[in-house]
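Risk register update: the risk of archive-format incompatibility is retired. Evidence:
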Amino acid sequence: MNRDAFLSAAARGCGASARAVGRAAITSGRWTAFGLRGLFRLLKKLFFLLVGRGEGLGLTNGRLRIAMLAFGIVYLTIVGRMVQYAVAPDVGAVAKASQQVAAVSRPDIVDRNGQVLATDIKVSSLYAEPKNIIDVDEAVELLSGALPELNRDELRARLSTKKGFVWLKREVTPREQVAVFRLGIPGVGFIQENKRIYPNGDIVAHILGFADVDNKGIAGIEKYLDTSGMTAKAAAIAADGGRMEPIHLALDLKVQHAVRDELAAGIKKFKAIAGSAAIADVDTGEIVSLVSLPDYDPNNPVDALKPDRINRVNVGVFEMGSTMKALTIAMGLDSGKFNLQSRMDARAPLQYGKFRIHDFHPTNRVLTIPEVFVHSSNIGTARIALGMGVDAHKAFLAKMRQLNRLQTELPESARPILPPRWGELNTITISFGHGLAIAPIQSVMAVGALVNGGYLMTPTFMQRTAAEARAASVQVLKPSTSVAMRYLMRLNAEKGSAKKADIPGYRVGGKTGTAEKVVGGRYAKNKNLTAFTAVFPMDKPKYMMLVVLDEPQALPETHGFATSGWNVVPVGGKMVERIAPLLGVEPIYDAPPAQDLLASIGATVGAVR
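Archived output:
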C-alpha cells in the first residue's frame, strides 16, 4: 500500500469512527454521551491506527504525529459541530426570543389602598428549534405523549420547518415542564416569561381589562398602560434590574366588592338580564367603583367578547329616562327664566301636533318646580324645555358633554345616539329622557356637576386631588343652581320616588328614571331600563352613585310594578348602607330637612304635595 492509499484508508476509518460517535451523541441527546472521555477514546484510536500502519510503511514518527494531529483536528471540528447542532441551542434565535419576552414586563396595578389588582409572575414556556430536530416523528410522538392537549398535526407542521425558533406551548405547568425535560429531546427547551394574573378574578374585570399571552394589554387600564407608555417604562426599568412603582387607581377594592355583591343580588331578585353601577367622588371625578354584570374572569378571558359582557357604564348607550329631568330643570334654573317658585301647568296632557305627552302619575294640577321634580312630571319638564327653546336646550346638553363621545383612561367608549333632525318634539321627549341615548358614565359626570358647585370634570380611573380636578374642570352652573339641585334631590328622597334609598343618617338624595327599551325600532312596553342617580351626603355632597337594571321584572311585593322606585332604588339604598361606612361618611341621625339646604342662597319654597 502506498502513502496516498494509506492516508485515504486512515481517513475513511477515522471518519467512520467519528460518525459513529456523532450518531451516538445525537441519538441520546446528552452531552455526556460525547464528552471528554469519548473524545479521548477517539483520539487514542486514531493514534494507534496511524502508528500501527505507519511502521509497516516505514514512515518516521514525526510524520505520523503530524498526520495524526491534522486528522484529529479535522474530525474533532466535524464532530463538535454535529454535537452542537444536536444538543446546543441556536443562540441567536433563542436569545432574541428571550429578549422579546423579557421586554414585556408590566407594572403592578393596585387600588387606592395599595391592594394588588394585577401583577406579573414568572412562568415557563416550551419552544423548539426545528432545524436541530433530528427525528420529527419521534419528537411529535414523545411531546404529544407528555402534552396530550397539543394537536399532532400542528406540532408536526411546526417541527418540520427550517426555522431557528418556534413556540410549542406557552405557560406550561411545573409538572408538564418536568415531563418534557425527562424526554431529553434535542432542540427543545424552555424560556421563562411574564404572565399577568388578577388575584381578584372577575371583581374588577371591566376596569382592568386584561393582557394576552404575550403580556400585551388588550382592554381597559391594561391597554391604557401600553398606549400611555407606562408599560415601556416598566420594561426599561426591569431591564436595568429594577421594578417600577405600582400604578395606583382611584378604585377602592372594598367598595367594589360591596357594590358588585348588592348589584348581583338585585339582578337575581328582580330577574333582570343585566345591571351596572358606578360610584364617583364629586370633588375629584375619581371613579371609586365600577361594576357591569355579567362580567368575565381576566385570568381566562374566553367570555370577554360575548355581547352581554360589555362594560355597560362606558360602552353601553341607553335612554336614561327621568334621570335626564334633573339636567332639564337645572338648565331652566341656571338660565334665570325659571326659579323654585315657577309654576308649570300639568292639568292636562301636553298636546304637540298629533302627539300627547302624559304623566305616569298625573296630578292634574299646576305644579311648582320642586313638585315637577318630585312627581317626575313629563308635562312640567317638557314645558321648561320648550320655554328654553331647541337651540338653548342643545347648547346646554353640549356644555354638559352629553352629545359627544366621552373618553377616559379606558379605551372603550361609546358615541351617544342623537336624533338625525332635532326639532321641538325632540326637545320635548329628550327633556324627560327619551330620544337621546348616552353612555351612563356621561350621566355620572353631569350629575356630579349638578351637586359639586357646578364644576364639570372628566371622570378618571386614576388618583388625583380635588385641586388637580378643579384646575382641569369647567364651571357649567352657578353655585346657586347647584344648591337648588341638592335641595330637589334630597326632597325626592324624603317625599318622592327615591324614598326606598333614604338610609337613616346618610342624607341621600337622588333622581329615578324608567325608560322603555327600543326593540326593532319601536318602544317595548314590557322591557324597561331602570336607573337611579343618587348623591350622599346631600348637605355636603361627596359621592355620586348610578345604578342601572336592565329589564327588571315585577314581583308580588312590587304590586305588579317594574319601575325604578320599586327595584333599582332599594338596590341603591342597600349599596349606600354598605359603602358609606367604608368611604368614611359618618351618619348624622338628626340631620336637618331638605328645606334647610336652601339657607345659603336664601331661597324659599312652598309645601310640596
